[in-house]
């Protein structure tokens, strides 16, 4: 291993976000990354883990609820730790952050990788992430937060013909309000490429970074898909008040973070935050202190929504399955 | 009023921090400030308020618990709002922030003006300030946070001769641990000058700023005072564990924000944060995302601790009385 190889340990490596990050790190030429997947003892024999090992990823056992000493050992020689843990288990990051601090990790990425939202009060999942970030700050742990906006892969609505059903997974059941609130989107496949640049960029140390490809309103998105497909889309406008009411109803039950209702709540709150409040924009991100990939990396190549949509229409896209089980649950449930 | 006059409304104008800010704004030549004191109906006839009016400060009634419409009216034509509210009443800022948002205030300064500390978990008073800041962020309200470190005026220990008792008000009952943790200090009279520059500086919009004069350890501070006074000081080293234990004891009683115990808790937590954890330093401030006045204003004139101490020894200093009643209660109680 050359001395300029950067050693990255990743929690949640077999999830959707973790997976694209691992791919990008393995593909990177400069710098070269050595990648270690922090893996639960019970997952060592999973096919996805074995497949990763075959691709050159180091597999290291890490029990987040086990002894600190073992976690510290798992992080021995690691430069950067990335968490893409399941949202409901965010608090399990605490021991990993403690161990990261004690072994002198150079940069820790807590599990954000979602849309831009206020630190508190709009999205319960984001509130929890803020607690995690605050814990890192109390530790004086070097960190970088990366948010990535809404994925193309969970944004396109179905077509009347049914011909893109194989690939799409819309997580919003219709168009919020008038459909004229812009929100930022990213192709999930680009997430890894952004992460690979951000984590070795001194400008992003102890900062939040917003990685995104395009900003569009729901109406513009429907227009685009109609133009490309030649089909007419029904536009189901959902009154803002109805979304608010769905949120209140679930909130009233105080769902625990590991419950399906929590996932449903997150789903509605994402929708409201992005498409009603308009939080998920570069402007609001900058107000909150984020750097943006557009400004950091004006040279970056990224997939346009149009090009992704054409790929879907051509039958060449892949549905994002994995995150149903592992990650970003808020996007994984249809808001019916 | 010329068009380039900046209209500042201030809450807590008769307090210690509010007072030095009002002075600096009134003294500023460029820009010129128009200053309005947001005043409780019950305080309109107070001597300090009448004295301010005589110095050209506009007095406007503001009842934070009154109708929003009235608050919005009080802020009519105001560019910048500064809150230096009493720490125990921080949550009263919420309606003021709502009104500031609805009338389009260009910049809102929530009541920080204290030491640098992590956003959560080290100082209960700071935790509450973070809640206020998060509320501003949820509103997308343009803001600036200013922290100012520890005041000289509450730092110098007494001398055996008693000759500086007239001026000093040490808030830490001894030296924490080994006395070798550096912390940043500011002459309270400089706070206003820093604020007057920061609030019209576009670089500080939606940012946190750390204004400070000098960084020193407790031992260095005692050395300095011994050298200047020619007296020998007793150094009462307080074990870290004893401070921790005092904090735990008060925390266990869960004091409400308006109780004397809360003030006592804040006192101990400030001490622990500054002198044990070492939070109140430019380095940690930068890690947390603060800009610093040293970097923003390398030309700024400020009073050195040595010069302040000499002033005290010469009998020319003034004790900070007012903040006992109005402000920074955590610094106003001796930790006996």
UniProtKB/TrEMBL annotation, chains A, B:
This is NmrA-like domain-containing protein. The lineage of its organism: Eukaryota, Fungi, Dikarya, Ascomycota, Pezizomycotina. The keyword Metal-binding does not apply. Residues 7-247 form the NmrA-like domain. InterPro entries: NAD(P)-bd_dom_sf, NmrA-like, NmrA/Isoflavone_reductase-like, PCBER-like. Pfam families: NmrA (PF05368). Keywords: NADP, Oxidoreductase. GO terms for molecular function: oxidoreductase activity. SUPFAM superfamilies: NAD(P)-binding Rossmann-fold domains. The keyword Transmembrane does not apply.
């Amino acid at each position: 291993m050359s001395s300029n190889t950067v050693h990255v340990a990743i929690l949640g490596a077999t999830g959707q976000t973790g997976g694209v990050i691992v791919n990008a790190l393995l593909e990177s030429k400069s710098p070269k990354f050595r990648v270690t997947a922090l893996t639960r003892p019970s997952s060592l024999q999973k096919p996805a883990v074995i497949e990763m090992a075959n691709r050159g990823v180091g597999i290291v056992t890490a029990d987040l609820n086990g002894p600190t000493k073992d976690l510290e050992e798992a992080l021995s020689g690691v430069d950067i730790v990335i968490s893409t843990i399941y949202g409901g288990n965010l608090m399990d990051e605490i021991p990993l952050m403690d161990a990261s601090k004690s072994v002198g990790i150079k940069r820790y990425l807590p599990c954000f990788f979602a849309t831009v939202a206020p630190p508190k009060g709009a999205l319960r999942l984001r509130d929890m992430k803020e607690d995690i970030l605050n814990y890192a700050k109390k530790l004086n742990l070097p960190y970088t937060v990366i948010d990535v906006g809404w994925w193309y892969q969970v944004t396109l609505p179905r077509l009347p013909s049914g011909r893109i059903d194989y690939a799409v997974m819309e997580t919003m059941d219709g168009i919020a309000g008038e459909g004229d609130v812009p929100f930022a989107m990213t192709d999930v496949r680009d997430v890894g490429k952004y992460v690979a640049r951000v984590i070795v960029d001194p400008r992003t140390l102890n900062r939040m970074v917003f990685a995104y490809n395009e900003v569009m309103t729901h109406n513009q998105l429907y227009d685009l898909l109609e133009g490309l497909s030649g089909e007419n889309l029904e536009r189901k406008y959902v009154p803002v008040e109805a979304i608010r009411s769905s949120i209140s109803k679930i909130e009233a039950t105080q769902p625990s973070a590991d419950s399906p209702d929590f996932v449903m709540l997150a789903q509605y709150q994402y929708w409201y935050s992005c498409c009603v409040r308009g939080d998920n924009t570069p402007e609001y991100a900058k107000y909150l202190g984020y750097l943006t990939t557009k400004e950091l990396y004006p040279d970056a190549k990224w997939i346009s929504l149009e090009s992704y949509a054409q790929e879907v229409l051509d039958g060449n896209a892949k549905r994002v399955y994995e995150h149903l089980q592992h990650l970003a649950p808020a996007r994984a449930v249809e808001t019916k």
